[in-house]
Structure formats: C-alpha cells, structure tokens
Amino acid sequence: MNIFMMLEMAADAMGDRVAVVSGDASLTYGELLVAARGAAALAQASGALRLAFLDINGLAAPVALFGAALAGIPYVPINYRLTAPEIAALLERVSPALLICESGEAPAGISRITPADFLARAQAGGGEDLVAPDEDRGIAVELFTSGTTGVPKAAILRHDNLLAYILGSVEFMGADEGDAAIVTVPPYHIAGISAVLSSVYAGRRMVQLPNFEPGAWLDLARRHGISNAFLVPTMLQRIVEHLDAGDGAAALPALRALAYGGGKMPLAVIERAMALFPDVDFTNAYGLTETSSTICLLDPAAHRAAVASDDPAVRRRLGSVGRALPAIELVIRDEDGRPVSPGEAGLVFVRGDQVAGEYHGLGSQTDAQGWFPTRDRGWVDEEGYLFLDGRADDVIVRGGENISPGEIEDVLGGHPAVAECAVVAMPDAEWGEGVAAAVVIAVGAEVSVEELQALVRGRLRSSRVPQAIRFVEALPYNETGKLLRRVIREEFAA
Hints:
GMP Synthetase, Chain A, domain 3, Rossmann fold, about 500 residues, 26 strands
C-alpha cells in the first residue's frame, strides 16, 4: 500500500472539510488532494529521486509529503535549525533531489524551489492520471535522526510501516467535523509526520504553529477551538510556567486530549498540568523515529488512577511511558540478550509491523526474529508498564559497575526544591567514571549540595551518590525536547 491512499480516502469522504490551516491560509481535503497531485507531477518532471523539505510548518509540508508518496520518491524533511555546513552535508547525501526551501545555496544535484512557488505550482493542478506506486516495501520517508551522539543517520520509513501504525491506532473519519489539532512539532520530527498522517485519516483539521511560544500557543488554541494537541515536555512546562506566572487564563473549553512525548516529563509538571486542565485527557506517548512513532501509551485512565492512588506502585506509573500498543511486542533483555524479569532493568527491544529499524546505507538493524534494539534502557512492572532509565549510551560505568542515571534522577527529582535534574558520567581518576548531576532549583526554593547527596545516600547505594552537583538555570534541550546530556558531560569534563 501507499500512504497517498489515506489522502484519497479523506478527500473522497470529506472533500469540503478543512484539512490544514496556516495563518490566514487553508486547504480543504479536496484541495490538498489536488495540490498533492500537482506536487507529484512537479517532482517527477524535475527528475529528482527525493523530495526534500527545508522549512517551518506551512501548507507546503503536507502537500510535499503526499506529493512525494504519489510520485514514488521518498520525502526527506531536514532540520532547518542546523548550521549551514550541517545542512549542506545532509543535502549532499540526498542528491539528486528537488528541495523546497526559502533561500540558500544548493549543492550539485539539488534543484531548489521556494515554498510559495512550490505551493502555487502544485495548486495549479497536474498529475491527475498518476497512480500511487504500490510496490512491496516502498520507501515513504527518510528522516534524519537528531545526531545528538554523532553524525545523523537517515532512518528509512516504508509505506507499510507508517500505514501499520495509522491503521492500527486511528479510526477513519473518527474526528468530528469541528475537531482540530494544533501542530507545534517541526516537520522533520517523526511526531510531525505522524501528526499529518493521523489527522488526515481521522479527518481532523490541522492548525499549524510554526514557532512555539506559550502565549501564542494558548491564543491559537482558543481562537481555533483546538480539541487535540501534542507537546514535547519542555513545551508543556513552558505553558504551565506561563499560566502560573499569571500571563494567561488556563481555560481551553474545546481541548479534550493532550498527548506529550519525546523526552522525560518531570512529575511536578504533569501533575500541575493535570490540575490546570482537569477535564483534559492526558496521554504519554513513547516512540522513536525508527518505530514510525508511538509504541507505548500511558493513557488518560492510567494518568488519573496514578494521581488518585495512595498505592506507591500505582502512583509511580505517572513516571512511566505506559504499556505497549496492541500491535507491538516489547521485551527487556540483559547485556547478554536474555529476557529479564519484571522490575529488572535492561535494554528495551520491540517488534511489530510498524517497526522499521532501518537506516540508509546501513540496512536493517532488526535481528532474525524481527526484534529492534531501541538503545533505551528501562524496566517493566508486573502490569507491563514501561519505565525508562535513559539511553544505553548514558549508562555510567563506575569501577566496572553499570549505573543508570534514571534511578538517581528519580530520587533527586523527588526533593521539593528540585525542578529538574540530569545525571551524567564525569571523568574519575580512580573509578574511571563518576556520577555528576546538574540541578535546576525550583523558584523560591533552596537546597544544598550536601542535602541532595544525603538524599541519594539514604535511598540508594553509596556508589550512586553524585560526587559533583552543579546548580544551573536550565538544562540544555534540543527543539524537540531531547535532553542534551552530551553538553552536560562536556561541562563536567571541563
């Protein structure tokens, strides 16, 4: 199958319904179909083997995604926040391509067109006779990973992977005509791809916010009667802080569902958000680029049960990422590849039809049984709730002992004076690596290094006590909410 099928179904069933809004401009599902066909014809005429997109959210993004699908070439959104040399390096890797971008030099093999020109030519029509390719294992999207630990890899997402996720988790035309989703994640993030696909299949209006700012987000949500939203943890934290500072009213009467993911959510933030929006259903969505988006969900019922419970085992589930989707199998393995028991930490492996686990030039990373190593560490409780301990590369090796940053962060984060914290490895002449922590203190609170060290010493083994704690104004995150531990490690190493 081909993801273009979803747009055809939507346009046939609800062609007059508004599909996407960006500023004062909009497209109905029928108009989006016409533009996607025009974009496919334009891409084919250019002779490009990829359709690359280097711009903020706008009408051109969904047109390009579906246009590439119809043309039978991969859609390649590129991070516009990278430096010019980094962008140039990625463009060389996708040549020959038709590049949608506002300005800048393009390397050999890249034909450039502005978003406005691309959109105008696409809307002019064409491609009416084109039929979406339905070849086995066709590539829909090539998505560069964030590159936080090295050179970005090009993850390959095939039509079958993306369709398996959408068809298994979204009901066709399941949205009411008045439903609207605010799109704040950038187009080069897997959440941006899945936001378009899931909204189109459900028939939900997409309202784009190109640049996130909490006040603007709240204003847009009120003005368009937003019913559904997805935010990375740092975005939700900024909205909560904005409201607590008295800079806006929390009332969003149309908002029914708010999903978050892409990073670790501080417990204080989600608890405060649930108090500010008591009638909203909160969902924690855990997924990866390589898994075509979400593989685990902490659903609204689990959120409310955790907040209301006096049972520590149930209450701590608010810090989990929930349970695997029905179509996903999940297992925790030790360093030797053996499955471990509930409560025991290890490496997270998943498999299912939506799991791609493949990179351009590197091939499939799944084993013979289809299991993909997420490179995340974690554990599951007796009921199957997954708790993440961080990336495998984040493990601190102190004197041959593996120490997970997550367990120490959970203890530090439980102190009322700690707003956020991150635990990393630091060089140690005796043990090889030591434990270090960067801590953000809550507004108006005070705490000493010695007090935090004593807290960890009283809850965990002495080897887990941070030998260095640094108080910082903020932790470093990238624009999609991923904590940049590398930056923190470098600061302690220096």
